[in-house]
TrEMBL record:
Residues 2-47 form the DUF112 domain. InterPro entries: DUF112_TM. The keyword Plastid does not apply. Keywords: Membrane, Transmembrane, Transmembrane helix. This is Tripartite tricarboxylate transporter permease. It comes from Yoonia phaeophyticola.
Length: 96
């Protein structure tokens, strides 16, 4: 563990040579440790960090295509309505 910690610290510092990056590494390491001790699954969090920027850029592109009127854009697309319907069912199903 000490070797992994040292390699992480050296690698983080060598990218931009800023101490703030080391503090962020320590902060996120502590957050990960607390989440692991609280039995939170870490895979969905990592997937969210990876897919979040991709989702945001594609959502921005969709808003530009729809010219700001997302409701009409969604209502005229049958595949989008089907996906939204499935999402609503999957969100409500555990409550039922």
């Amino acid at each position: 563990m000490a070797g992994v910690l040292m390699i992480s610290l050296i690698g983080t510092y060598s990218v931009a040579r800023q101490i703030n990056d080391l503090w962020l590494l320590i902060l996120f390491g502590l957050i990960g440790y607390v989440l692991r001790k609280a039995n939170y699954p870490l895979a969905p969090i990592v997937i969210g960090f990876v897919l979040g920027p991709i989702f945001e850029s594609n959502f921005r592109r969709t808003v530009l295509i729809a010219q700001g009127n997302l409701l009409d854009y969604v209502q005229t697309r049958p595949i989008t309505l089907g996906v939204l319907f499935c999402v609503c069912i999957f969100l409500v199903w555990p409550l039922v």
